[in-house]
Amino acid sequence: MKFTQMVSKTLRTEPTEAETANHRLMLKAGMISQVASGVYSYLPLAWRSLKKIENIIRDEMNAAGGQEIRMPVLQPQELWEETGRVAGFGENLFSLQDRRGRPMVLAPTHEEVVTNIVKGNVQSYRDLPVILYQIQTKFRDEARPRAGLIRVREFDMKDAYSFDADEDGLDSSYQAMGQAYRNIYERCGLPVIIAEADSGAIGGKDSHEFILPTPTGEDTIILCPSCGYAANAEKARGQVSHTGEEATLPLKQVSTPGIKTIDALCSFLNVQPSKTLKAVFYRADEETIFVTVRGDLEVNEVALKNALGCKALRLASDEEVKEAGLVAGSASPIGIKDVRRIADISITKGANYVVGANLPDTHMINANYPRDFEVDVLEHFALTQEGQRCMMCPGTLESTKGVEVGHIFKLGTFFSETLGAYYLDSEGQQRPIIMGCYGIGVGRLLAAAVEQNHDDKGIVFPTPIAPFQVGCGECSRCPIPGAVGGGHRDPVR
Ligand SMILES: [Zn+2]
Question: Could you state, in order of their start, the residue ranges of all structural domains in the chain?
Answer without folding.
Answer: 3-72+107-220+402-449, 252-379
